[in-house]
Q: What sequence folds into this?
């Protein structure tokens, strides 16, 4: 059987008689008319657009080539021929074709299936010159066309059955999905109803809690108002007592000054620096306090009779390191003059001088001291030691040795960067 199929496949176009080839092409043209564009071979797309009467004639060569090259198209045409010649279907026996027509039709089926077909082709076909023969040939062609149409219809019916089965399966799936969706919807509706009931209970509880909170707030407001009134009364009482005590102290001091006939202060301690080695006075220090905030410096300088002592070059080199020493002194003294005008504090700036005598000048209310035979650090220590205990002394320097000494003597120590930040803020 395999040898016969191979023998049939090796036949060339010249081996196929014209009547067999024409019948195969007509059958292929009928099948092409009912083939979907997506399943049509690319070479037959143009032939498919031909008129039905021209399709088998004008497209004979592309149809014949497609039958030999496209296995899927050939299989579709073969399936149509087999359905048209199904022996179980009585339609194939409605007409009794002639022996020649039956032979050509059988040769068409054998050629399409790859079987030996040469022995099926009638060898002696009578001439068809009379009218009856022409009518018979026309009827045979019509019969072939009808058979092809029946095959195409059966193929379409099979495809429709497959599509119907697929649609029925899809319908069953959609119904199952709908049933599940309805079941899920009922579950969700029950859960939503429970959530709504819980939310209503929570809302009622929240309303009760809000009412209790409002009552507590009103009670707290009343208690706060009562406490505020009591605090105001206590504040007025304390203020009255303090004012009475202050007036008593002021009157006593004025009477004491008048009784002792004390002259006004002409010399301040900084003008009479105590000699080196004088015993330091015991006073509170600034240890444990933050001194990096310029606001603390303002608070200290607002205290009565505060004295600000500045390590001149230590501060000026921190604030203006890229200028000359003369410009540094000028900028620092100008800034300290503005600070004096704002706070009214006593200010002394100490600069390292040259050998000779100590120079003392006053510029814009600022006492400027240049050392002689000593350092500005030593001069700061002497100035702190010369002040009486209890006076507010603020020393501005970043030298840690000086910081330790002046704090031990009871002065406040503030870093140079803090004073520079205060001067730049003005």
A:
């Amino acid at each position: 059987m395999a040898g016969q199929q191979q023998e049939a496949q090796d036949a060339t176009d010249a081996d196929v008689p014209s009547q067999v080839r024409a019948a195969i092409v007509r059958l292929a043209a009928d099948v092409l008319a009912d083939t979907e564009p997506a399943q049509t071979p690319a070479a037959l797309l143009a032939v498919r657009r031909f008129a039905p009467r021209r399709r088998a004639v004008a497209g004979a060569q592309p149809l014949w080539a497609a039958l030999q090259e496209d296995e899927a198209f050939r299989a579709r045409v073969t399936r149509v021929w087999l359905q048209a010649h199904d022996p179980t279907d009585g339609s194939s026996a409605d007409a009794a074709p002639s022996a020649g027509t039956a032979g050509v039709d059988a040769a068409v089926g054998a050629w399409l299936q790859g079987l030996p077909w040469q022995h099926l082709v009638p060898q002696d076909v009578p001439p068809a010159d009379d009218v009856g023969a022409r009518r018979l040939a026309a009827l045979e062609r019509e019969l072939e066309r009808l058979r092809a149409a029946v095959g195409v219809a059966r193929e379409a019916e099979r495809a429709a059955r497959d599509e119907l089965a697929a649609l029925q399966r899809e319908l069953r799936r959609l119904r199952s999905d709908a049933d599940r969706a309805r079941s899920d919807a009922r579950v969700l509706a029950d859960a939503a109803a429970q959530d709504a009931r819980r939310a209503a209970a929570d809302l009622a509880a929240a309303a009760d809690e809000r009412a209790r909170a409002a009552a507590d707030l009103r009670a707290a407001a009343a208690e706060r108002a009562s406490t505020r009134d009591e605090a105001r009364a206590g504040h007025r009482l304390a203020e009255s007592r303090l004012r009475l005590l202050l007036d008593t102290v002021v009157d006593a001091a004025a009477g004491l000054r008048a009784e002792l006939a004390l002259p006004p202060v002409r010399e301040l301690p900084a003008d009479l620096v105590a000699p080196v080695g004088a015993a330091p006075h015991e006073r509170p220090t600034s240890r444990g306090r933050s001194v990096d905030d310029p606001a603390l410096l303002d608070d200290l300088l607002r205290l009565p009779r505060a004295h600000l002592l500045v390590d001149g070059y230590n501060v000026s080199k921190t604030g203006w390191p890229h200028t000359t020493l003369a410009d540094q002194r000028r900028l620092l003294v100008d800034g300290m003059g503005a600070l004096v005008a704002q706070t009214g504090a006593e200010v002394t700036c100490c600069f390292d001088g040259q050998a000779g005598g100590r120079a003392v000048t006053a510029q814009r209310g600022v006492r400027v001291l240049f050392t002689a035979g000593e350092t500005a650090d030593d001069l700061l220590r002497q100035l702190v030691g010369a002040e009486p205990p209890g006076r507010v002394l603020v020393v501005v320097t970043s030298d840690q040795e000086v910081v330790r000494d002046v704090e031990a003597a009871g002065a406040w120590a503030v870093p140079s960067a803090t004073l520079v930040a205060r001067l730049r803020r003005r």
